[in-house]
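Quick one: structure tokens for this chain, please?
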Amino acid sequence: MREKNADQRLTRSEKSWILYDVANSAFIMIVTATIPIYFRSLAEGAGVESSTATSLWGSATSISILILALLSPVLGAIADYEGMKKKIFTVFFVLAIGGGILFTFAPGWISFLVFFILARIGYAACNVFYDAMLIDVTTNDRMDRISTYGYAFGYIGSCIPFVAGLLLILNCDALGLPMTVATQISFIITMVWWVVMSLPLYKNVHQKYSLPRQKHVVSATFSRLGGTMKKLAKDKRLLLFILGYFCYIDGVGTIISMATTYGGEVGIDSNAMVLALLLTQFVAFPCSIFSGVLAKKYGTMRLIKIFIFMYIAICIFGYGLDTEIEFWILAVCVGVCQGGIQALSRSYFGKLVPKDESSEYFGFFDVFGKFADFFGPLILSACAYFLHSSKYGILSLIVLFVIGFILITISEKYKKD
């Protein structure tokens, strides 16, 4: 019994890896909740129409994701060399924090979008290497558990700086602060949290698997990329899974990143949206951990498929959404699903890839994930611009979930070599 309990305890490197999810989730929380509202106030204050503001926000998200998607495989391949993973991670970490500070004090909506794109690129690039570090901190048997713990504690931990900032915004009059200043301070609180909670990763997480250093890194990297693409083409199980992942994670990412923008368009009160999304975080915490337990009992792929069906139901419900209570219900439903499907997709992929080339493979994983994030907001932006409503964009996401389900189901027919 004592030996079993020892096996259940988290190691120092596993705890430190999980804490980075707590760190960066604080940023994605404000990207989902307060930043779109702040941007909308900047844009509409400058005379931009509401539907155009939705389109601009979706386009900015798509641009940042597209840039990162093109860079991810190259960066990942370089990071696989000995001692490189954390160095490249640090470059983009600085870009993310710097971009966040700059957009906080941006004077207008155009400069705000430019600096936001830089911060979003830095955030997403860090996640490529962070995801790949999962291979370095744990074993295949523990991977589902550690991955779901990362998302779970990320959800609950991100609420701490978010609630602090939210209380500051809601009580700005009593504190004698303009709403804009209170919102800017809330952004700075998030950036400081991100830096402080990242320190354990720098201290305790080390690159365990790597390739020998090459004299000509750039040429060797592109040579490896070509070889990896050929291996991906031959590995039907991995290729079909990653294509299926591209489709279903498109819908997941779009629902997360465009929730408050869509809610604002259909007339949901800003404070209600923020509080509902805060509820999502609290619901996601236990549900993410529970999904790891269920995956161990029933299988990772089976849980992913169940979550896909739940997201199809969410899209149908979201299409008819037009009241505040319905937005609250939607927030709870998303909270049940989002951590589990993201965490289990990450750990399932991690079990399939070669460990000494994990960063490169996660770079390709990120390409498909980021292109998905690119097309999803683009679909909603196009619907908002041409049809003057994002409802049809929400409904169209069902097609992507269905295609994703079919592809990952076919992938199971191919055994890992």
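The chain has a mean pLDDT of 81.
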